[in-house]
Specification:
The protein has one domain: lipopolysaccharide transport protein A fold. It contains no helices and 13 strands.
Length: 206
């Protein structure tokens, strides 16, 4: 069984999505996990472990995970833990729709851990996670390790030497929400009435 990587040392930060308490696509939890790969896999029924390699794709409802190699272990109570790795120049990618139409959470990292019991995704190494609204990016987070809890929609972030930013710093970008085209423009402030001058003298006739 692959070793779970320890958290990289740095300051810890928790960020809730700015859009509010709307959760990831709840229907995904009742959908089966489907695995496909280009190369032959290995199924260990005794240890409840499946190994796949070569353009591995995992789907579960709207959830889509792509990796070069995946090791999936089934727990005694029927949950699954997937450990995915990418290759040089091609990271592991993850995408899942939210309950808000047109919105999704997507991200990439060198490695990824997905746990169906806790509904958490752990992005490890040069991680970048975004919340998209249509084609636009609403929030973007980069760091060494990012843990996404799809039930609460909370990101837990850590910096570290694997961060893409200088000195391993975590970076968060929150884009302003665009104003609706139908929203009425703010009314201009009413002009003050003209007042007679208290300093100028009337002009004398020539």
């Amino acid at each position: 069984m692959p070793q779970r990587l320890p958290f990289l040392t740095a300051s810890l930060l928790t960020l809730a999505l700015a859009a509010g308490p709307v959760l990831a696509e709840k229907a995904d939890r009742t959908k089966p996990m489907v695995f496909t790969a280009d190369k032959e896999g290995r199924l260990d029924g005794v240890n409840q472990r499946t190994e796949l390699s070569g353009n591995v794709v995992i789907t579960r409802g709207t959830l889509l995970l792509r990796a070069e190699k995946v090791d999936v272990r089934e727990t005694r109570d029927g949950y699954h833990q997937a450990y995915a790795t990418g290759t040089t120049g091609r990271q592991v990618s993850f995408r899942q729709a939210r309950d808000i139409p047109g919105e999704a959470v997507e991200g990439v990292a060198d490695q990824l851990e997905y746990d169906t019991r806790t509904e958490t995704v752990r992005f490890i190494g040069n991680a970048n996670v975004r919340r998209t609204r249509g084609a636009a990016v609403a929030e973007e987070v980069t760091g060494a390790v990012i843990v996404y809890d799809s039930r609460t929609e909370v990101f837990t972030l850590e910096g570290g030497s694997a961060s893409p930013n200088p000195n391993g710093r975590t970076r968060i970008v929150i884009m302003p929400r665009a104003e609706s085209a139908d929203a009425p423009a703010s009314a201009p402030a009413p002009a003050l009435p003209l007042q007679p001058s208290t300093t100028l003298s009337p002009r004398k006739p020539s």
